[in-house]
Amino acid sequence: MEQQILLQAKIAFFLGNFNKVLEIWQQNDYDDDYYYFLVSRALIAARELKPKTIRLTKKPSSKLLEITDIVSRFMGPLIEQQKSETTIDEDRKQIEDVLKKLKDIIPQQNQKIIQIICAYMSVNSCEAQYALQLEMPKDAFQQELLYLQFMIYLRGRRFDLAESTLLDLRRFDDEDILTYLAQIYLNLYNGQPEQAYKSIQETKDRFGDSSKLMNLMITCLIHQNKFEEAFELGQKVKTLIIDNEQFSDRQEIEICLSNLIVLSELLNKQQQKEEYIQVLEQINKSCHFLKRYQEKVKKIEQLS
C-alpha cells in the first residue's frame, strides 16, 4: 500500500499533475524521503502559483518542512536560472559552490537530495561529471538520477550515451513513468516526431493524460508542420491549465503559451498572439522564451 502511494505520487508529479500529488499527500500518511521530495516540489509550486482549485488542509510534518526548505532555498532558484548563458567553467564553479554549501547544511539522512539538486544543475549546463559523483543505492532517488543523466546526455547530443542510459532505466523498471518519458524525448531529439507521438499515446494509455503529454504532442505536431492541429490542441491545454485553473507545473504553462505564440505567428493570428504574450508576461516576465522572442522582435524592428 505504501509503495502504491509513492508510485501514484511519482506518476502524477512527472506528468505535471501537481494537484494530484497534493491530493495524494493530504489523503495519506506515508513517511519516506523521496515521497516528501516529490510533495515538497508540488508545495513550492502551489505557494508560487496559488491555484484556487487547491485547498491545503493538512499540516506538513517536520521532516517534510525540512526537505521543502532545502528544495526551496536551493533547487527553486536553480530552476529559475536554468537558461542563463554561462560557460562550462562557470557552470562547474556554480555546481561546486552549491555542492559545498549543501554538504554543510543538509543533514546526513538527506544527503541524497544533494545529488538530485546538482543533477538538475548539470542537466541545464550539460555538465554530467558533477551530477553523479556519489554511489547511490538502487532506490527512487537513483532512478530519478538516471533519468537526469539521460537528459544530460540528450541535451549534449550524446545519443549513444543517452540510449545506453535508457537501457539502464529499462533494466531498473521498464514500466516506470520515467522510462516512458525518456523514450519520448529520445524520439523527439532523434528527429522522429511520428514515433514520439506514438510513444506519447502509449504513455497516455498507461498512465492517463496530462498537460505535459499534451504539450509534447504539440511539439510533435509542430515538427510535422501540422500547425492548425497543434494550435487547436494548444488552446485546449490553455483552457485546461489556465482558464480552468487546473494546477500544473509552471513550466508546462510557459511551454503551452510559448507554443501558442509561435503558432499564432505562423498562422497569422496577430490578436491572439498579443493576448498570449500578455498572459505569459503576467505569469513570468523573465521567461527565457519571452526574452528570446522580444530580442528577435527588436532586431527585426531595427532592420526594418
From TrEMBL:
Q: Which GO terms describe its molecular function?
A: structural molecule activity
Identify the keywords attached in UniProt to this record, alphabetized.
Cytoplasm, Cytoplasmic vesicle, ER-Golgi transport, Golgi apparatus, Membrane, Protein transport, Transport
Which InterPro entries does the UniProt entry name for this protein?
Answer: Coatomer_esu (IPR006822), TPR-like_helical_dom_sf (IPR011990)
GO biological process, alphabetically ordered? endoplasmic reticulum to Golgi vesicle-mediated transport; intra-Golgi vesicle-mediated transport; protein transport; retrograde vesicle-mediated transport, Golgi to endoplasmic reticulum
Q: What is the membrane topology noted in the UniProt record heading this document?
A: Peripheral membrane protein
Q: Can you quote a single GO CC term?
A: COPI vesicle coat
Q: Where in the cell is it found?
A: Cytoplasmic vesicle, COPI-coated vesicle membrane; Golgi apparatus membrane
Coiled coil feature spans: none
Family according to the record = Belongs to the COPE family.
Protein name, UniProt field: Coatomer subunit epsilon
